[in-house]
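FORM 7B: Structural annotation worksheet

SECTION A. Query
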Amino acid sequence: MLISAFQLLYRSGAAQAPGFVLSLRTRRFTTPSASQDNELLIPAPSLIMEAVMNLAALPTETRNPASEHIDQLPTLDMLRVINDEDAKVAAAVAVELPNIAKAVDAIAQRFQQGGRLFYIGAGTSGRLGVLDASECPPTFSVPPSLFQGLIAGGDSTLRSSSEQSEDSPEQGAADLAAAGFAAQDTLVGIAASGRTPYVIGALTHARKIGALTVSLTCVPNSEMAAFADISIAPVPGPEVLTGSTRLKAGTATKLVLNMLSTAVMIRTGAVYGNLMVNVQTTNVKLVDRALRIISDATGVDQPTAATLLNEGGSVKTAIVMQKLSLTPEAALAKLAASKGNLTVALQ
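SECTION B. Predicted structure
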């Protein structure tokens, strides 16, 4: 049996009960008289059942009556069931918009003070955090250090699952500290179930040093919410496949992460109108996009946009040059004075 299952039960509050001993080194049961190095108490059967019952009560773990016979449906009807359930996700996220807005404004404020945004999670939740963090540098031309994603078990678990990694709060705290997380930063702890020990350990460490903490779960009144300054908890309901939180819960999580990173970047000046003016011209597609952005923002044709981009070296500089009739040097100075915020620079 995997160690993670026992660690979960141990941390359910049953550690004081009589039980067996499991060696973390050997993953074998031993008697209490054996060596106690790196060993873990396993709760008695009644307490094991209590922990299992607590998990079964989570909305993410309950059975969905709409899909109870999905294995007997024709393929098209099967897909309709999945699609009907997916349609509920956006509404669940909409309920949490006020909390998402609080998080966006708080994170943006910390960005202005030199802070960064960290995501941390296990399994699907961790992968979604790493994905969103990885997309921000090419989308908004920000350094990779500004958005960072941590996953239980390390980067190798992006491809190969390591379920047992999620059960150590100490490892969550250690991984966050090793990444250089600091008091001015923000931590978004992600777990569909709202009780992953690895994430709770990280949130505990973040709060201890005075950082902003946000919990992102898919259950109401989660354990994680107690460790967070702001709780975001869309509840899309039971999954089509019981307990498979990569489905609706994963979709809800991705929608919230999209909002957090995109809205924070809008608030901090990386967007002009709905144009990604921080785009870097690193390939043919992005050069074309940059020219279209300059044309849309200024009204010039593409040949003129190309000239402005060549002279200014960036989309923002090109737009300031054209709209304010400035030299490249003067446009750069204007942007520096506005801390890179194009809207402010053009006022």
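SECTION C. Observations
The chain has three domains: 3-56, 76-267, 284-345. The CA atoms of residues 308 and 323 lie 11 Å apart.

SECTION D. Sign-off
Analyst initials: ____
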